[in-house]
C-alpha cells in the first residue's frame, strides 16, 4: 500500500506569520484540469486590515534599511527560490497546466527578475535622483523615497507575474499587501514561505488569497494605504471603482495591465510609479 | 554682570560660541531685502541731513598734513558753505598726531575729534605702546578713540587677550568715548563678527565699528546687520545701548540711506542718532551734499560745486 | 522721531498696464467671444472692478480642445524639438521685456506686493520658460522618452497666477504637447496678457489656448474625452474630485495640492535667520502659498525667545497697497478667502489658542488680514490641521527631535517642511525623516526652475520643475 501524502494547508501570509483567514473561510482551488488542488484561505476585509497594519509597522524599518541591505535580502529570496525550484516547477505545472519546460522558464525568469531588481536597490537613486543647479547659493538635491504601503492586485502568472509586481516595490523600500491571483493563489503562499525564510522582515510583503472583488475595495479605500497597483485587475468596471476609491486619500495608482508579457525585461516605472521625489535645499555659506 | 563669562578663556569661548550662529545666505538676503526699501521726499530730506550729522569725516593717509586736516575740519563744521542750514558732521577722524590741529580748527563747534589709536590699522605693537598711543591722542584733545582689536589673537581663539586689551584701552581713554574696530574683512565670517561684537560690548566699548578702511571688504550691509542685531540684543539683556559705526566703502547717498533703513528696522529708531550710529567715510559727504542740493533746488548738481578737501 | 522712517508711499505706476473693459477667450491663436456668461475680476486691494471676462462654456472648452488637437497633430508634434525650443526662448525673452507690465498687472489682479511680483514671480516665470526651452531638443536624455502625450488640460490657482501658468505651459510645450489652460476666476488677467505674448512670439495657433471661467469650466476640461493629460494645482478637495473623474481613463494626471508644512526650529538654530524664515514662510504672498510654513514647531527651550523676536519682527511688516514698493504684505485675494481665514482664526481662538496680530492699520477698502500668530496650539486644534491659506501662523512646541518629526509628519499632507539648526548631521537626519516633497533646511520658500516641486500623501502627486517635471508630459517607457 502506498504512503498517504501529508498535504499542505495553504493559509495567508501576514506580518511574517501564516494565519488562517480570521473569517474561517476557504475556497476550492482546482488544477488546470478541474481537479482539486487544495483549499485556499479566503481572506476577509479584516484580514486586509490586519495586513495593512503589518505593512505599515514594517515600513519604518524596511524603508530605512540601507539599500545594500535590501539588495542582499531580495537576492537572498532569489537564492532560496533557486533551491526550491523543483517544488515551484511542479506547482506551476499542476496549477497552470503547462509543460515542464514552460514551468522551468517561468521559474528561471522569476529568479532572474529577483536578481535584477536586487541590483537596483542601490542604483535607482543614482538614476532617478538629481543634483539641481539652482540659480542661487543653495545646495539642492532630489532623491527618491518609497511612497509607503502599496496594495497590489497581482496578475495571473502565479510566480513570475507575482514576483514582477512585488519585487520592484519592496526593493525601493515600500511595503506591500498583495492579493494573489484569484485562480492560482497557491504558489503565492509557497512564495511567502520562501520570503519568510529569506531574512525579509515580517510585514514587508503580505499575501492575501481570495476574492479580488471582495478584498480590493477595502484596500483601495483604506486611508493608510499610499498606493494601489491594479496590474492584475481584469474587470474594467472594478478597476475604475478601485481608482475612484483610491482618490479618497490620493493614492498613487497604477492602472490595470493584466496581459503584460512578464518574460520581457521591465522598464523602471514599476519602481518609479511608487516613489516620491524629495528635494532638499540648504544654503551654501561660511 | 559678565564676570563669570570673562573669568577664563574657556568660559569666554563657551559664551561666544554659544551665541546663535549666523547663516550667511539668509543674512545677506535679509540685508538685500532691506536695501529695496524706497524712501521719498520729506523722509529722504530728513535722512540726508541725519546722515550728514552721522558722518565721521575721515582722513587716514600717510600723506596727511596739517593743512589737509585743517581743511577737512573746516568742511566738517560747514559742509556746504553755500547753505547755512546744512548741518555739521559728527566728527573728524584723524591719526593721533593730527588731533591737536583738528581740535584747534573745530574749537567749540560741537564737532568731535576722533583719533585712531592702538597702532592703527594693524594693531601690531606692544600693549604699552598701544596704551601710550591712546593716552597721547586723548591728551591732545581727542573726544573719541577708534581702537583696533588684535585680530591675530581673536582668530587664534585668545578671546580673553582681546577682551583685556579693550578694557585697558578703555581705561586709558578716560572720558573719551571708545570705538572698537573689528576689521571684519579679516574676521571673514559673520559668526566671528557676532562674537567680536559681544566681546567688545562686554568689555565696555561705546561703539562697535566694522573696519579700518585699509582692508577690503570694509563695511558691508550684512556685516552691519549682524552688529545692529548684536547691539539690539545687548540692550535687551543689559539695558545698555552701544553704538555702531560702519566705515569704509560707503560712498553714495543711496548706500547711506540703505544703512539708515537697516538701523531703523533692526536696532530700532533709538539708534537713528549720531550718538548711536556713525558713518566712517571720506567721499560720502560730497554725495550727500549733492543729493541735498538736488532736493532743495530740484535739479541734479555736479561735483564741481562741492569742495574737494 | 520714530516717524521719520514712515516711508512715504512709493507706488509703482499703473500707467504701464492697459486693462481692457472686457476680455474674450484665447482659442486657436485668436481672442474670441465666449458662448457663456461673463464674470468680473476685481482688484482685491480696492474692490474696484478691473474687467469683465468670459466664462467658457462646454462648447468653448470643446472648441479650445479641438484647436489644441489640430495644432498638436498638424504642427507642434511634428516640429523638431530645436524649433519648439526657439518659440519657448522667444516667450521667455518677451516676458523679460514686458516684465514690469506683467508684475504690475499681477499685483493689481492678485493683491500681492509689487516687490514679490517684480522680484520673484515674473523673473521666475521667465526663467522657467528659459529652462524648459532648453529641454525641448534634449528629451531623449531625460529618462522619460521623448513622446508627448497630446493635449494637456491645465487648471491653475490664483495665488501665483503667471508663475503657475509657467509651471504648466513651459514643460508641456517643451515636450511637444499643446495646452488648454484655465486660470483662476479671480486672477485671469496675466494669463490673458500671456496669450498676447504668444501672439507676439508668433506661436502657432492652437498650441496655447486660454479659457477663463470657474469650476464648471474646469470640470469641462478635466472630463473632455480628447484631453490626454490633466495638470492641476489647487485645493486637495478639487484634486480628489479630479482623481475620481479621470478614473478608468487613460489620462495622465499630476496634482499639486494643499499643505500644512511644519517649520521646525531647534534651539541651536541661526536665530535671526530662522525668524526671517518663519516670516517668509508664512507671510510671503499673504500666506497664500500651498507650501507655506503654517505650523511653527519650536523647541521648548527657545520658544519664548523665538516668540519675542518673531513678534518684534512682525511689527515691522508693512501691510497695504500692493503697488507700493515698500509693502511686505498685500491684500487677501478675495472676499471668500478672507471669510475663510477669519472663520478659521475665530475657531482657533474659540478652541483656546492665544491670538496675536501685528499692530498695523489696514486700508478701509479691499480685503485685508493682519499678520497673525497663534500660540498655545496643540495638534488637535483645527488651525494646526487645516490649511488656512492666509497670513496665520500656528505655533507648537517640541522637546526632542523625535517629537518634532512625529508632530511634523502627523498630517495627511506632505508638501514641504523646514528645519533650522546649526548641526549638519541633524539637518540630514531630519530631512530623511520628514515625509514631504520639499525640505528647506535653514531657508524657506525657495523656488527654482531646476528644482522639482510637489508633495507626498494628500498634497498630490507628480513633480513640477527640473528634469522630474518632464515626466508628467511624456509617455515614458511603460513596462
UniProtKB/TrEMBL annotation, chain A:
<dbReference type="Pfam" id="PF00171">
    <property type="entry name" value="Aldedh"/>
</dbReference>
<dbReference type="InterPro" id="IPR015590">
    <property type="entry name" value="Aldehyde_DH_dom"/>
</dbReference>
<dbReference type="GO" id="GO:0016491">
    <property type="term" value="F:oxidoreductase activity"/>
</dbReference>
<keyword id="KW-0560">Oxidoreductase</keyword>
<protein>
    <submittedName>
        <fullName>Aldehyde dehydrogenase family protein</fullName>
    </submittedName>
</protein>
<dbReference type="InterPro" id="IPR016162">
    <property type="entry name" value="Ald_DH_N"/>
</dbReference>
<feature type="domain" description="Aldehyde dehydrogenase">
    <location>
        <begin position="22"/>
        <end position="237"/>
    </location>
</feature>
<dbReference type="InterPro" id="IPR016161">
    <property type="entry name" value="Ald_DH/histidinol_DH"/>
</dbReference>
Automatic annotation (TrEMBL), chain B:
<keyword id="KW-0456">Lyase</keyword>
<dbReference type="GO" id="GO:0004139">
    <property type="term" value="F:deoxyribose-phosphate aldolase activity"/>
</dbReference>
<dbReference type="Pfam" id="PF01791">
    <property type="entry name" value="DeoC"/>
</dbReference>
<dbReference type="GO" id="GO:0009264">
    <property type="term" value="P:deoxyribonucleotide catabolic process"/>
</dbReference>
<protein>
    <recommendedName>
        <fullName>Deoxyribose-phosphate aldolase</fullName>
        <ecNumber>4.1.2.4</ecNumber>
    </recommendedName>
</protein>
<dbReference type="InterPro" id="IPR002915">
    <property type="entry name" value="DeoC/FbaB/LacD_aldolase"/>
</dbReference>
<dbReference type="GO" id="GO:0005737">
    <property type="term" value="C:cytoplasm"/>
</dbReference>
<dbReference type="InterPro" id="IPR011343">
    <property type="entry name" value="DeoC"/>
</dbReference>
<dbReference type="InterPro" id="IPR013785">
    <property type="entry name" value="Aldolase_TIM"/>
</dbReference>
<keyword id="KW-0704">Schiff base</keyword>
<comment type="similarity">
    <text>Belongs to the DeoC/FbaB aldolase family. DeoC type 2 subfamily.</text>
</comment>
<dbReference type="GO" id="GO:0016052">
    <property type="term" value="P:carbohydrate catabolic process"/>
</dbReference>
<comment type="pathway">
    <text>Carbohydrate degradation; 2-deoxy-D-ribose 1-phosphate degradation; D-glyceraldehyde 3-phosphate and acetaldehyde from 2-deoxy-alpha-D-ribose 1-phosphate: step 2/2.</text>
</comment>
Amino acid at each position: 500500500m502506498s504512503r498517504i501524502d501529508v498535504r499542505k494547508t495553504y493559509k495567508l501570509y501576514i506580518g511574517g506569520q501564516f494565519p488562517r483567514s480570521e473569517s474561517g473561510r476557504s475556497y476550492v482551488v482546482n488544477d488546470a484540469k478541474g481537479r482539486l488542488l487544495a483549499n485556499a484561505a479566503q481572506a476577509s476585509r479584516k484580514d486586509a486590515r490586519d495586513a495593512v497594519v503589518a505593512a505599515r509597522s514594517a515600513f519604518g524599518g524596511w524603508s530605512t534599511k540601507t539599500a545594500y541591505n535590501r539588495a542582499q535580502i531580495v537576492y537572498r529570496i532569489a537564492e532560496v527560490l533557486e533551491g526550491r525550484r523543483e517544488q515551484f516547477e511542479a506547482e506551476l505545472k499542476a496549477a497552470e497546466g503547462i509543460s515542464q519546460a514552460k514551468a522551468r522558464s517561468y521559474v528561471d525568469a522569476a529568479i532572474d527578475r529577483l536578481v535584477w531588481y536586487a541590483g537596483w536597490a542601490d542604483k535607482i537613486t543614482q538614476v532617478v535622483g538629481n543634483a539641481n543647479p539652482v540659480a542661487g547659493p543653495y545646495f539642492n538635491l532630489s532623491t527618491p523615497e518609497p511612497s509607503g504601503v502599496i496594495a497590489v492586485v497581482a496578475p495571473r502568472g502565479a510566480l513570475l507575474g507575482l514576483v514582477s509586481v512585488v519585487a520592484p516595490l519592496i526593493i525601493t523600500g515600500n511595503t506591500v499587501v498583495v492579493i494573489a491571483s484569484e485562480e492560482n493563489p497557491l504558489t503565492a503562499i509557497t512564495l511567502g514561505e520562501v520570503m519568510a525564510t529569506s531574512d525579509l522582515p515580517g510585514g514587508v510583503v503580505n499575501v492575501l488569497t481570495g476574492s479580488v472583488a471582495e478584498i480590493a475595495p477595502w484596500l483601495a479605500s483604506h486611508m493608510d494605504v499610499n498606493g494601489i497597483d491594479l496590474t492584475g485587475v481584469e474587470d474594467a468596471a472594478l478597476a475604475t471603482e478601485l481608482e475612484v476609491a483610491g482618490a479618497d486619500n490620493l493614492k498613487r495608482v497604477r492602472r490595470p495591465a493584466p496581459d503584460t508579457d512578464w518574460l520581457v525585461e521591465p522598464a523602471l516605472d514599476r519602481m518609479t510609479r511608487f516613489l516620491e521625489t524629495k528635494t532638499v535645499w540648504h544654503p551654501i555659506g561660511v | 554682570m559678565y564676570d563669570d563669562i570673562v573669568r577664563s578663556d574657556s568660559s569666554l569661548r563657551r559664551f561666544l560660541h554659544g551665541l546663535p550662529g549666523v547663516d550667511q545666505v539668509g543674512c545677506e538676503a535679509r540685508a538685500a531685502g532691506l536695501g529695496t526699501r524706497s524712501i521719498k521726499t520729506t523722509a529722504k530730506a530728513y535722512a540726508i541731513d541725519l546722515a550728514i550729522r552721522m558722518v565721521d569725516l575721515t582722513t587716514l593717509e600717510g600723506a596727511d598734513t596739517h593743512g589737509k586736516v585743517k581743511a577737512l575740519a573746516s568742511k566738517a563744521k560747514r559742509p556746504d558753505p553755500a547753505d547755512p542750514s546744512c548741518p555739521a558732521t559728527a566728527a573728524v577722524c584723524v591719526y593721533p598726531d593730527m588731533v591737536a590741529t583738528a581740535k584747534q580748527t573745530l574749537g567749540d563747534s560741537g564737532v568731535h575729534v576722533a583719533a585712531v589709536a592702538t597702532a592703527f590699522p594693524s594693531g601690531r605693537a606692544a600693549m604699552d605702546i598701544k596704551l601710550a598711543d591712546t593716552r597721547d591722542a586723548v591728551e591732545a584733545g581727542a573726544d573719541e578713540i577708534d581702537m583696533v582689536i588684535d585680530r591675530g589673537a581673536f582668530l587664534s581663539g585668545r578671546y580673553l587677550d582681546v577682551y583685556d586689551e579693550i578694557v585697558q584701552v578703555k581705561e586709558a581713554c578716560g572720558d573719551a568715548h571708545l570705538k572698537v574696530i573689528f576689521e571684519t574683512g579679516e574676521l571673514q565670517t559673520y559668526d566671528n563678527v557676532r562674537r567680536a561684537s559681544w566681546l567688545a560690548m562686554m568689555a565696555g566699548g561705546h561703539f562697535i565699528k566694522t573696519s579700518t578702511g585699509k582692508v577690503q571688504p570694509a563695511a558691508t550691509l550684512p556685516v552691519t546687520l549682524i552688529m545692529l542685531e548684536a547691539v539690539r540684543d545687548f540692550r535687551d539683556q543689559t539695558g545698555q545701548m552701544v553704538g555702531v559705526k560702519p566705515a569704509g566703502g560707503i560712498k553714495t547717498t543711496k548706500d547711506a540711506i540703505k544703512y539708515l533703513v537697516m538701523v531703523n528696522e533692526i536696532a530700532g529708531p533709538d539708534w537713528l542718532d549720531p550718538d548711536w550710529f556713525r558713518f566712517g567715510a571720506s567721499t560720502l559727504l560730497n554725495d550727500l551734499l549733492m543729493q541735498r542740493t538736488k532736493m532743495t533746488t530740484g535739479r541734479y548738481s555736479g561735483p564741481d560745486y562741492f569742495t574737494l578737501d | 522721531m520714530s516717524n521719520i522712517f514712515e516711508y512715504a508711499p512709493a507706488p509703482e505706476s499703473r500707467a504701464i498696464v492697459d486693462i481692457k473693459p472686457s476680455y474674450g477667450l484665447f482659442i486657436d491663436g485668436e481672442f474670441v467671444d465666449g458662448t457663456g456668461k461673463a464674470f468680473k475680476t476685481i482688484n482685491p486691494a480696492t474692490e474696484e472692478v478691473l474687467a469683465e471676462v468670459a466664462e467658457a462654456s462646454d462648447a468653448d472648452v470643446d472648441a479650445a480642445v479641438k484647436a489644441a488637437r489640430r495644432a498638436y497633430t498638424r504642427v507642434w508634434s511634428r516640429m523638431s524639438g530645436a524649433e519648439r525650443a526657439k518659440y519657448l526662448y522667444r516667450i521667455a525673452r518677451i516676458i523679460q521685456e514686458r516684465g514690469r507690465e506683467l508684475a504690475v498687472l499681477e499685483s493689481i489682479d492678485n493683491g500681492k506686493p509689487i516687490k514679490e511680483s517684480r522680484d520673484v514671480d515674473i523673473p521666475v516665470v521667465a526663467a522657467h520658460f528659459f529652462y524648459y526651452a532648453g529641454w525641448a531638443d534634449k528629451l531623449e536624455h531625460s529618462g522619460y522618452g521623448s513622446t508627448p502625450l497630446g493635449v494637456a488640460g491645465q487648471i491653475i490657482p490664483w495665488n501665483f497666477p503667471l508663475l503657475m501658468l509657467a509651471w504648466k505651459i513651459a514643460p508641456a510645450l517643451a515636450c511637444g504637447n499643446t495646452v488648454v489652460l484655465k486660470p483662476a476666476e479671480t486672477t485671469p488677467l496675466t494669463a490673458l496678457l500671456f496669450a498676447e505674448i504668444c501672439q507676439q512670439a508668433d506661436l502657432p495657433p492652437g498650441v496655447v489656448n486660454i479659457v477663463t471661467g470657474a469650476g464648471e469650466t474646469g470640470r469641462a476640461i478635466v472630463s473632455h474625452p480628447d484631453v490626454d493629460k490633466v495638470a492641476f494645482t489647487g485645493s486637495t478637495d478639487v484634486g480628489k474630485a479630479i482623481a475620481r473623474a479621470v478614473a478608468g481613463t487613460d489620462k495622465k494626471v499630476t496634482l499639486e495640492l494643499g499643505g500644512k508644512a511644519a517649520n521646525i526650529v531647534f534651539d541651536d538654530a541661526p536665530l535671526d535667520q530662522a525668524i526671517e524664515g518663519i516670516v517668509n514662510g508664512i507671510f510671503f504672498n499673504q500666506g497664500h502659498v500651498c507650501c507655506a510654513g503654517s505650523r511653527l514647531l519650536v523647541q521648548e527651550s527657545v520658544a519664548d525667545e523665538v516668540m519675542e523676536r518673531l513678534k518684534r519682527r512682525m511689527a515691522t511688516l508693512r501691510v497695504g497697497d500692493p503697488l507700493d514698493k515698500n509693502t511686505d504684505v498685500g491684500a487677501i485675494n478675495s472676499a471668500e478667502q478672507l471669510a475663510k481665514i477669519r472663520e478659521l482664526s475665530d475657531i482657533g481662538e474659540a478652541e483656546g489658542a492665544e491670538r496675536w496680530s501685528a499692530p498695523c492699520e489696514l486700508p478701509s477698502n479691499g480685503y485685508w488680514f493682519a499678520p497673525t500668530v497663534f500660540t498655545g496650539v496643540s495638534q488637535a486644534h483645527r488651525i494646526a490641521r487645516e490649511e488656512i491659506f492666509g497670513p496665520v501662523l500656528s505655533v507648537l512646541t517640541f522637546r526632542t527631535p523625535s517629537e518634532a518629526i512625529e508632530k511634523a509628519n502627523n498630517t495627511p499632507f506632505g508638501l514641504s517642511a523646514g528645519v533650522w539648526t546649526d548641526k549638519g548631521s541633524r539637518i540630514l537626519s531630519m530631512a530623511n525623516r520628514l515625509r514631504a516633497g520639499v525640505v528647506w533646511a535653514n531657508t524657506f520658500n525657495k523656488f527654482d526652475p531646476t528644482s522639482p516641486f510637489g508633495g507626498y500623501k494628500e498634497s498630490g502627486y507628480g513633480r513640477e520643475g527640473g528634469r522630474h517635471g518632464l515626466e508628467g508630459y511624456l509617455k515614458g517607457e511603460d513596462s
